[in-house]
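Lecture 7 notes: from sequence to structure.
We start with the chain below.
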Amino acid sequence: MSKRRAVLFSAIMAAGLSTFFAASAEADTFTLANSNGGDGYVVSIPGGFDLFGGNNGAGSNYTTYLATAPTNETLTSNWVYTTNDCCGAGWDPGGYVVNDVYTQLSPEVYGTMGTGNSSGVVTLSVLAGQDYGFYVYTVDGVLGRGDIAVTATPLPSTWTMLIAGFAGLGFFAYRGSRKSHSAALAAA
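Predicted structure tokens for the same chain:
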């Protein structure tokens, strides 16, 4: 590979990989909060976190895990809601928050433990300075916790840039092989 091609190869790879890792490198700082004496908590999981609502008999309370967007952001996340409450998801609903507007993702169902377990994908568009994150609301604070696990999904534009980088490499490799083949024929 010529020096010029090696420089182009390095530049294309650097652009593609830096775009691919940009979303994960700019992680916002989240803060856990419990209202009304709740004992909710958060644990790290690969690619995200799992937020658990309260269950210490404190009565109704919110457990939130919020960040402030440093820039305008569009965030796409996978979420999985699980209820460990004996009487279903309606007692410990979970969802997302943007600027103090709470949007429930879990279904409003009652029944036995596990009734209302659900999952999906959510996309949040937040402006610089807006608070956003996820919550679990505990209605009674007894008989089991609800939790919402959240993991990031790669942005389509990131994959597009990475694929475009590889396509560029393929083009330069093809072009280089044609020149080498033409030179070999001319020498023969």
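Points to note: The longest strand covers residues 73-83. Residues 3-26 have pLDDT under 50 and may be disordered.
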